[in-house]
Recover the amino acids of this structure.
């Protein structure tokens, strides 16, 4: 029973296209995140939502638009894809916010390749 | 601002030898510190965390880490390495009470354990 699940696992698309990645967690957590891992394996936070409210937006281009329909789901839509968007995108969840001691639970990642 | 440094891109050890993966951090307040492991083509998995209390924390798979406030370090250790420990290891810090629960990750250290 997967705790944090992302779909699709692989995405190959052309520059200029629009794509979405979906994420769901069944841990009952109230905070969800999107992280980007580049080709050098560096991990950077993109967004965080707490109870459907956007909490963190780390200077990500506005071609990236997260949406959280409820606290168990966080989707990522990307418009006008560029070559530099090629990366692995990880969804994660945790319980609580600033004073939370909770660790992050990660999905298996969605590998996006822009041609 | 909070930051994490993992000074070694790569650590190589022989199976059965002790291993250390280094991490130093910088926060303005009190830190919550975490170690995660990433196996190839997988998401990150939580290993252990320091919140408060005993400076030596024990985690999954026989790993432990020592919190040193004066040296602002949180090195990951294991007394006897296994080939199956070979993976990418990330240290992360969260500044308690600030940054809306944002975790900042180091650049990762690739651990290779040779038979």
């Amino acid at each position: 029973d997967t705790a944090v699940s992302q779909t699709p696992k692989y995405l190959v698309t052309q520059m200029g296209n629009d794509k979405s990645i979906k994420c769901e967690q069944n841990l009952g957590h109230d905070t969800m995140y999107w992280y980007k891992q580049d080709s050098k394996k560096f991990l950077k936070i993109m967004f965080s939502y707490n109870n459907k409210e956007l909490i963190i937006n780390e200077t990500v281009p506005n071609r990236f638009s997260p949406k959280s329909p409820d606290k168990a789901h966080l989707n990522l839509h990307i418009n006008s894809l560029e070559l530099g968007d090629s990366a692995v995108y990880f969804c994660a969840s945790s319980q609580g916010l600033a004073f939370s001691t909770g660790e992050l639970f990660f999905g298996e990642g969605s590998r996006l390749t822009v041609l | 601002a909070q930051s994490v440094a993992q000074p070694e891109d790569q650590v190589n050890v022989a199976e059965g030898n002790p291993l250390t993966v280094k991490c130093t951090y910088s926060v303005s307040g009190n830190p919550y510190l975490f170690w995660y492991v990433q196996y190839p083509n997988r998401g990150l998995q939580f290993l252990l965390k320091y919140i408060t209390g005993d400076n030596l924390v024990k985690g999954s798979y026989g790993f432990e880490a020592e919190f040193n406030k004066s040296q602002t370090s949180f090195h990951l250790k294991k007394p006897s390495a296994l080939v199956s420990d070979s993976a990418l290891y990330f240290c992360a810090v969260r500044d308690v009470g600030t940054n809306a629960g944002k975790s900042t990750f180091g650049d990762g250290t690739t651990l290779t354990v040779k038979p």
Q: What stands out?
A: Chain A has one domain: 4-96+108-112. Chain A is about 0% helix and 55% strand.
